[in-house]
Amino acid sequence: MNPTAPAAELLRRNAGNPALAWRLLRHLLSSPAGALPPLRTIISLSRLLVVARMLPELHDLRRLILLPRHPPAAVRNALSALVTISASAGLLDHALAHFRSLRSQFPSHPPSTRLYNCLLKCSLRAHRTDLVEVLYRDMLLAGVPPETYTFNILISSLCDSDRIEEARLLFDNMPVKNCQPDEFSFGFLICRYCKAGLSHRAVELLDEMGRHGRSPNIVIYNTLISSFCKEGSTGEAEKLVERMRKDGLFPNVVTFNSRISALCKAGRVLEAYQIFRDMQEDKELGLPRPNQITFNLMLDGFCKGGMLEEARALVELMKVGGSLTNLQSYNIWLSGLVKCGRLLEAQQLLEEMVQQGIEPNSYSYNILIDGLCKEGMIYGARSVMSLMKNNGMSPDPVTYRSLLHWYCTRRNISGAIKILHEMTSSGCFPNSFTCNILLQSLWKEGRIMEAEKLLQEMNKKGYGLDIVTCNIVINGLCENGKLDKAIEIVNGMWQHGSAALGELGNAFLGLVDDRNEKKKCSPGLITYSILINHLCKAGSMLIRAFCKISDFDAAQAMFHGALTACGQKEVLYSLMCNEYFMYGKISEAKELLQIALEKEFSLEHFPCKNLIEELCKEDRIEDGHSLINTMIAKGYLFDPATFMPVIDALGKKGNKHEADKLSEKMMDMAAHHDGSMVSFSDRLHGDSENKRQKQKQEVSLGSDWHNLLHRDDGSGIAMKLLKRVQKGHGIKPQLQTVTSEKYGFPKWISCRPCSNMP
C-alpha cells in the first residue's frame, strides 16, 4: 500500500473540519518515518488552511515541508504550491515568506515564470508597486525569461503609478526580450494616455496595433471615444466611431453613452437627445437600446441645461418603461427641480420616493435642504431636516454646512455658532470645509479673537488646517490692516505649512509643529493673489497720500516698489498716471500712458482724452497726435471725442490735410464705437464682447461723442451727416475750426456738408 495514501484519505474524510484534518496530517508529517504527501494533498491541505484563515498553521506546514528527510524535488514543488495558493488568496506577505524559503533553499533552481507572474499579479492587486519592481529584478537576475503576460503586469503597475513614460519605454523594449505586445499591452497604455489627457498619443498607439498584427477590441475603442468626448472633441470621437465600424466592430451602449454624456456636458443637449431617440426608435440601424445609465445621462443633461419640461417628459417615459426605479435617477430629478426653483414639487418627490419603495439617502435630503437655504427658506430647511431624522437618517456635515452658510451669508454669526454646537452635540463633527465657512465670516466681521479661537479648536480637534484655511486667515489679516503679519505667515508656510499660523500669537504656538506631514501646505496662486491685491491697495493708500502733499519723488519710489512686489499691474499704472495728471505732471502722465500702450493694457481707467486735450492746450500737438496714432495702431477702440482737441489744434496751425485725415479716422471710429475702450489683443482673443458688456455697466451711458451727436439743440444735423456717410452716399464730412454756436457745437467743430445735403 502506498505509505502516503492514509494522508490523502484522512484529508478527504475531514475536509469539512480543517482543524482536525490539520492535526492528523501534522502528526503524520512529524513522525520520524512520515513521508511528504503527494503534491495534490499538499495543495488541498493548503487551500483548506487558507479558506479557514488558519495562517499560523500554514506557516507550520512550510516548516514541516522543509524537514531535511524529504526529497528536494518534492519540497521544491510543495513550496511553489504554497506560494501560488497564498498569492491567489491575496495573502501577499505569506506568499513572499514561502517564496523567500524557496529561493534560499534552492538558489540554483530558479522559480518558474508562472510563479513570478503569480507574485507580480498579487503585488499589483495589493498596490505594492515597489514589490513589482523588486520581483522583476529578481526574475532577471535568476535568468527567468519574462512573458508578454509579465510585461503586461509591469506596464499596468507603472501606469497605475502615473509613470507612463517608463511604461512606454518598457512596452517598446518588449521585442528585446522576445515578447510581442498583445491587446492588453496596448490597452493598458491607451487607457493611461486617455486618463492623462493625452488622447492623441493614444490614437498614435492605436495606429501601431496593425503593424504588430493586433486588432483593437471594443473596450479600446470605447476608452478612446470616451476620452475624446470628455475633452469635448466630439469630431475626433465621431471619426473613431467610423473607424470602429470599418474594423467590423459595432458601437455598443457604452459607446453611445460616452457620446451622449459629452454632448450634454458641452451644452448640446438636443443633439444628445437625438442620439437617445435614435437608440429608442430606429431599429433598422441596429442601434443598442438605452440602458439605465443612458436614461440617467439624458435626464441629468436636461436638468443641468434648465430644460425642465423636457426632463419632466423623460421622467414620465421612464415611469412607463420601468426605468425610474433606482435612487440615482430620483436624485438627478430632485436636483433638477431644486435647480429650477421648484422646491414644493421637490418636497412632493421625496414623499413619492418613499411611496415607491425608494428610500431617500442623505444626498437626497441635502439637495432639498441646500436649495431651501439658498432661497432663504430656513424654516423649510429645518422641516426637511426633521423629516430626515424621523426617517432614521442622521444629518451629516453637508447638511449642517448648508444651514451654516445661510447664517453666515446673513452675517448672523451667533446663529452660525449655534449650528456648530448643535452639530457637535448630535455626534456629527464638522470638517475643515464646514469650519472654514464660519472662519471666513468671523474674519469678515472683524471678530478676530473669535476667529483665532475657532482656529485653536480646529487644531485641537484634529481638523486639517488646509490651504483654504490659511488663505482665509491671510486675507482676514490683510483686510484688518495686518499686512506685515500676513506676509510673515506666507513666508513661514514654505517651511511649516499650515503650522505657520502659529505666528498669530502665543495662543497658537502649539500649532507650530512641522513634524505632521498632513498639515503641510504651501502658498499657492490664490495665496499670492491675496497678498498682491492688498499690496496694490496699500501702495495706492500711500501713492495718493504722497501726491497730495506734492512729494512726487516719494510717490514714484512707492510706485516702483509696488511694481517690484506686485508685478506689472495695470491698476498701478492707471493709478500713477491719474495722480500725475491730476496734479499737473503732464509729461510724466504721458510717459506712463505710452508704457500702458506698449503693454496693451486696457485704457478704461487711464485719462486718455483729458491728457490729450491738455497736451494740445500746452501746444504739444505732436505728442497728442502721436498718442492717438499709437492707440489706433494698437487696435484700441476709444471715444471718438478724443480726436477733437488734436483736430482743432491742427486746424488752428493750418495743417488742414492732417486734420482731414484724422477726421476720417474719427468717423470710422464712431462707426464701431460702443462706449467702451477695448484693446486689439482683447478682440484677438475673443474677450472683447464680455469686457465691453462689463465696461458698459461701469462707465456712464454714452460717450461724449454720442452726447454730441444726439444733443437737442439742433446738433442732430451731425448725426444725419454721419448716417449719410455710413450709407455710402459719397458725402465726406470736413471739419473746420470755426465757431458754430447756432447748432450748439463746441467752438472747435463745425460740419460743412456738400451741396446736395438736404
Low-confidence stretches: 506-519, 676-758
The geometry reads as elongated
Radius of gyration: 39 Å
Helix content: 55-70%
**What is the helix tally?**
40
Describe this structure in words.
The chain is 67% helix and 0% strand. It is mainly alpha-helical and 758 residues long. The radius of gyration is 39 Å and the shape is elongated. Helix 21 runs antiparallel to helix 22 (378-390), helix 27 packs antiparallel against helix 28 and helix 29 (525-548) packs antiparallel against helix 30 (552-566). The protein starts with a helix and ends in a 32-residue tail after the last helix. The protein is built from 40 helices and no strands.
Descriptive terms for the model:
758 residues; mainly alpha
Quickly describe the structure:
The protein is an all-alpha fold. The chain is built from 40 helices and no strands. This is DEAD-box ATP-dependent RNA helicase.
How do the helices and strands line up, and which of them pair or pack?
Blueprint: H1 5-13, H2 18-30, H3 39-51, H4 55-65, H5 72-88, H6 92-105, H7 113-125, H8 129-141, H9 148-160, H10 164-172, H11 183-195, H12 199-211, H13 218-230, H14 234-246, H15 253-265, H16 269-281, H17 292-304, H18 308-321, H19 327-339, H20 343-355, H21 362-374, H22 378-390, H23 397-409, H24 413-425, H25 432-444, H26 448-460, H27 467-479, H28 483-496, H29 525-548, H30 552-566, H31 570-582, H32 586-598, H33 608-617, H34 621-633, H35 644-652, H36 656-672, H37 680-684, H38 688-698, H39 704-709, H40 716-726
Helix pairs in contact: 1-2, 2-4, 3-5, 5-6, 5-7, 7-8, 7-9, 8-9, 9-10, 9-11, 10-11, 11-12, 11-13, 13-14, 13-15, 15-16, 15-17, 16-17, 17-18, 17-19, 19-20, 19-21, 20-21, 21-22, 21-23, 23-24, 23-25, 24-25, 25-26, 25-27, 27-28, 27-29, 28-29, 29-30, 29-31, 31-32, 32-33, 32-34, 33-34, 33-35, ...
